Each structure stands twice: as C-alpha cells, then as structure tokens.
Amino acid sequence: MNSNIFKIDNLQYCKWSKEIFKINKEAKLDAIHVTIAYHEDFDEVKKNIDEWENYFKEFKDLIFQGKTFKDIEKAHKEKKTAVFFGFQNCSPIEDDIGLVEEVYKMGIRFMQLTYNNQSLLATGCYEKNDSGVTRMGKEVIKEMNNLGIVVDMSHSAEKSTLDAIKISRKPIAITHANPSFWFDAKRNKSNDVLKALAESGGVIGLSLYPHHLKDKTNCTLESFCEMAAKTAELIGVKHIGIGSDLCIGHSNNVVDWMRNGTWTKTKDYGEGSANNANFPKQPEWFRDARGFKNLEMGLQKTGFNNAEVNDILGNNWYNFYRGINS
Amino acid sequence: MNSNIFKIDNLQYCKWSKEIFKINKEAKLDAIHVTIAYHEDFDEVKKNIDEWENYFKEFKDLIFQGKTFKDIEKAHKEKKTAVFFGFQNCSPIEDDIGLVEEVYKMGIRFMQLTYNNQSLLATGCYEKNDSGVTRMGKEVIKEMNNLGIVVDMSHSAEKSTLDAIKISRKPIAITHANPSFWFDAKRNKSNDVLKALAESGGVIGLSLYPHHLKDKTNCTLESFCEMAAKTAELIGVKHIGIGSDLCIGHSNNVVDWMRNGTWTKTKDYGEGSANNANFPKQPEWFRDARGFKNLEMGLQKTGFNNAEVNDILGNNWYNFYRGINS
After folding, report:
1. Average pLDDT of chain A, as a whole number
2. Contact call for residues A82 and A68 (beta carbons, < 8 A)
3. How many domains does chain B have?
4. How confident is the model at residue A2 (pLDDT cuts 50, 70, 90)?
5. How far apart are the C-alpha atoms of A312 and A322, rounded to whole Å?
6. Are the CB atoms for B209 and B245 separated by under 8 Å?
7. Is residue A44 part of a domain?
8. Given Cys at both, which of A38, A270, B84, B148 links B66, Cβ 3.0 to 4.6 Å?
9. CB B196 within 8 A of CB B162
C-alpha cells in the first residue's frame, strides 16, 4: 500500500480556467473526477474532449489526464492534479453497447446510468416509478466492468441503485450525494442504499452542492461533519469520500441546460423552483476546493482521527481507483 | 362519411420490391403503414426515407406516400396503395423532443414509444418491470398529439400502455398484436388494455405474425376469426383492424437485427429461441396480403355481417386516420 496522503474531489463541473485549476492545486487536490457529459451524445462528447485536450496543453504545469490510480500518485509527486473523465448520464453511448469501449478508450472512467430521468439503462431519481436496471442496463454494466468504467448511481432512483450494486461484479460509486437521514432530498440516499453500497466495497462522495445540504447555503460545517460521522457509524469510514459537485463560475443558463437538456419543452426546475431557478450559492466554508481545509478541521473536531480524516478527504477514493482495473 | 370500402393493412415490414407492391394491390390494399425504423437514429432514418423516395419514383403506378386520410381515398380512386410511415421505436428522436416535429415533417404518422426494451419514453414488453410512461414520455406524447403522430403501443408493457392511453389526448393505436386471452404471448394484450384502448377510441390491428398466433404457423383461419369475434364482443367491432406484421422476403439476419439492435453483446432471441431463431413461416392462409381474401371469408363465416367485415379489414383504420389530425 502507498503511504501517501492523497486529496481527491471526486466530482467537479466548474467553468474550467487556469484560476480553477490553481485553486484546486492550492487545495492540494491530487485528483478530480470531472463531468464531461450531461446530455451530450457521442459526437458532442468528442468535442468536449477536444476542449480538455486544449486545457491539458495550455495548463500542463497544473493538470494532466488521469487514467489509472498511478496517475494520482504521479500527480501527487509532481504537485499537479490528475483529471479523470466521467459522464453524469449514459447519453454518450446512445443506444449502442459498442460505444462503451469507445468511450473507455477516450479515457472515460465513470458513467452514471441515469441523470434524474429514465434512461435506456436505469431509472433516475426524479421519475415517479423505478423499474430498476433494464435489459440493456445489465449488458452495459457487464461491459463497463470488463473494461474498467465505474458505475456511478448518484442521480439514480432507489431500486435501480440497489439493482446496480447487485448486478455489478465490481464495487460501484455514488460520486456525489448525501444521506437522506440528514437531508431528505430526492438526490440523497437511503440507509438501505448506503449499506448495500458499503457492503459491496463502494464509496459515496459527500456532496457540497447546496441543494443536497441540510439548510442548503446556510448549512454549517459542524452539521456537515456530524453527518459524516453518523454516516461513518452506519457504513464505516472506509466508504466515505468527497464529491463536492462544485459548479462554480457558470452562468445560470448552464443549470437550466443541466435540468432540461433536450427532453422537454416545459421548463423543469429540478432541485430548484421557478422562484429559485439559479445555481445556489455555496456555503461560505466551501466556496471552492480550498474548503477542503475547513473540512479537515471540521472532521477532526467532530472526533475523526487523522487517518480517518485522510481517508475521507482522498485516501478512500485513491483505494477505490486502485480497484477499478483489478 | 365516405361510403367506400377501404382495405388497410396497418403494419407491414417486408423486403420491399415491385412484387410486394403488386401483391398488396392485388389484395386491394388502399393503404399500408410501413415500419421505417426499429433501432435507427435520426440520420439513419433519413437514409431509409431516401430509399422510400426511390420506391415512390420507381413504382409510381403502384404506390405513393400517404400523409392524411385523404391519401387513402386518393389511393382507392387511383387503384394504388398509400404508404404511411411509422417507427416501431422512438430511437429516431434520440433524446431530443425537437426531433418529433422533424420526423412529422418527414411524414411519420405512427411512433411506438418502445420496442420490447425500456426506452426513454416508456417500458417495453420484454422488461421485467414496467415503470410506465416516463417524464420525457409525457412531454413527447403531448408533442405527438399536437403534431398528429399516433402513439403506438404494440411492443409496450402493460402499465406503460395504460398510462399512454390515459395521457394521450387523442386515441392511440396498437397497430399489430393480438389479445392474450387467445394466446398469452408477451406481445399480446390483456383484456384491461383492450378495453381501455377501445374506451378511448383506439384501434388494435390484429396480427398475422406466427409468434402472436395460437399454434403459431399452424394457427387455423377459423381460430383466428373466432378470436376476432370474441375481441369484438369484448371491445366492439369498431375498434378492430388488421396489422399483419408481414415481414416477408427478408433474410434471417434481419430478425436477428430487429431483436438485438445494438443494445446487447449477448444474443437475444426475442419471441424465438436458440433452436428456432429464424423468421417463422406464415400460416398458409396468410402468406402475404392476398390472405385478406381468406380473412374476409373467414370473418363472414364466423358470423360478422358484411359491414362488420369491411370495418375490420380497413374501414375502422380509415376512420382512425380521419381522426389523427382533428
């Protein structure tokens, strides 16, 4: 085992810039998992990857593309941040199981089976009924397992998530969500899901997105860290990481697009509402990745020892990444 | 009302040729609804339409594209067959509600919300669980209603079908299936579905595809016509038509593609099996559309009067088409 202390934010979707990458490095992040698709199809994703290739060239002193856990070690050594690609939706594979291998070759390492709505693979958490993982879903999970793409069920519904945990022969991830025992939002997860996730070796990335937080923007650091402690009691500290869901720097038409994509002509407000349609404001103790420092202090104060704090802030995700291609 | 006697086969997917179009005309078919997509996406469908445009040019003495009920009258007068386009799947609209209008402009008049599997809109009859019409499904049905594309639930699961009947503000169709009281195949429909369909003004096209028939290829004309009589007792003769599901002339890799598309790497045999994977053989009294003559005699023999026989063999579908754009 590696004795380093790694810091990993396992979900960010910021308006990428030199400034953001510098902030991430200031926060000592060795790796981030970034979203490169919400509703994009295969060709559209290729364009997003082209953009990332430009970032990797332009900001090569700050970031490079991560493909295996060894890139996390490399980033740590070189004081850079390894950037791992993921999809929040299965839209890029369209209806073609053959595209799973294509996106793997492009470096995709995480894929959500659903983004809020029903997909061809499973049911999203905003649907009224949840029929679980579909016929195609079973086939695609097998393919993802074979290749080394992590099944991510952050935006999925309950039965679909339990199905995915059972069907996947590798641990799955919930890269960004919180327990519903703390705040009962549609996107947060039941104790049943959290327990099944942990029993199968999976990890949940606790989210700092205000719509997933008790008291939203006004959530306190203490409340968040107490939630982490209760979650650790419930499922064990080894199954907890951070997936901040930071969406900073974007204009509000981005959150509108995330919610509506091209699936509806009636405006959908997702976790917001007509009167509260915009990106929510981050709590002041986690405005950007430098908030990891506050999390560190807060978690210590709540009673976690140093090793446990390190586990939560990155080492658990590092170990999870080690398992992806095993 | 038009006092003509129309003959309509509301589902065919043959290997199109002059011979087939001549047979359809020999059978006096004034209209056929043809499948132009099983798994195709938007661009692939455009290619299929290009092929059809060639057929319309090459065989202009036999066929032309139908867009409204008036084209059925025109075809009857000119002794041709009007060809109406439909999709057996929603794959051509991909995940984009904006494409519904595009496919309407291309002449699409029927679209199944699902083809056996879960789609973005609803659940197919081969899935284990049926969550009904999805969030996107509701939006797309509204759009189809507004434009004049018929919701077709032939390959859909029970709850999804009942949902679609409820949600659609226009009558829906089951273009090709049989009642499960007669033969309990996955593709056939329950009494609940048949009753709800009829109550909402919809029509079912009775299927001549052997996997939907009692005793399959050995099904007798008598048995088929008795089934039609019982269905008429259950839901009223006005809600029954023919959707033969004729797939003649194709090589067996076509049925393999229909079943497997690009959704699985594990071979799926659909209604067949590993030992019985090919297109089934048609019963001898319905080898092609000329079997309409046998149906006419069979239905009369079962006790339907002439007006009722005419209703079943085309007039009910003609009236249904009249309502599409109302």
Report:
1. 97
2. no
3. 1
4. low
5. 16
6. yes
7. yes
8. B84
9. yes
Distance of alpha carbon A73 from alpha carbon B325, whole angstroms: 64
pLDDT digits (tens, 9 = 90+) for A301-323: 999 999 999 999 999 999 999 99
Residue A249 lies in a domain: yes
B142 vs A contacts (CB less than 8 Å): 265
* B221 falls within a domain: yes
Token output for A211: 């719509």
Interface size A-B, in CB pairs within 8 Å, comes to 98
Contacts of A265 in chain B (CB under 8 A): 97, 139, 142-143
Q: What is the pTM of this model?
A: 0.96
B39 within some domain: yes
Tokens of B85: 């386009």
Give residue-wise pLDDT tens across range A265-314.
999 999 999 999 999 999 999 999 999 999 999 999 999 999 999 999 99
Measured distance CA(A82)–CA(A68) in Å, rounded: 10
Alpha helices in chain A (DSSP H): 18-26, 42-58, 69-78, 98-105, 135-147, 158-167, 191-199, 221-235, 252-260, 292-302, 306-310, 316-324
CATH number, domain of A298, equals 3.20.20.140
Q: Which range of residues forms the domain containing residue B210? A: 8-324
Q: Residue B1 pLDDT > 60, yes or no?
A: no
ipTM: 0.95
Which residues are bridge partners to B151 per DSSP? B111
Contact list in B for residue A263 (CB cut-off 8 A) is 95-97, 120, 135-136, 139
Sort residue A104 into left (φ over 0), alpha (ψ -120 to 50) or beta: alpha
Q: In 3-state terms, what secondary structure has residue A63? A: strand
Instruction: Give the one of A261, A265, A268 whose C-beta lies nearest to B95's C-beta.
Output: A261
Q: Is B11 exposed, middle or buried (0-12, 13-18, 19+ CB in 10 A)?
A: buried
By Cβ distance, the residue of B97, B261, B264 closest to A263 is B97
DSSP designation for A80: -
Interface-testing mutation among A93, A264, A268, with chain B (most B C-beta atoms within 10 A): A264
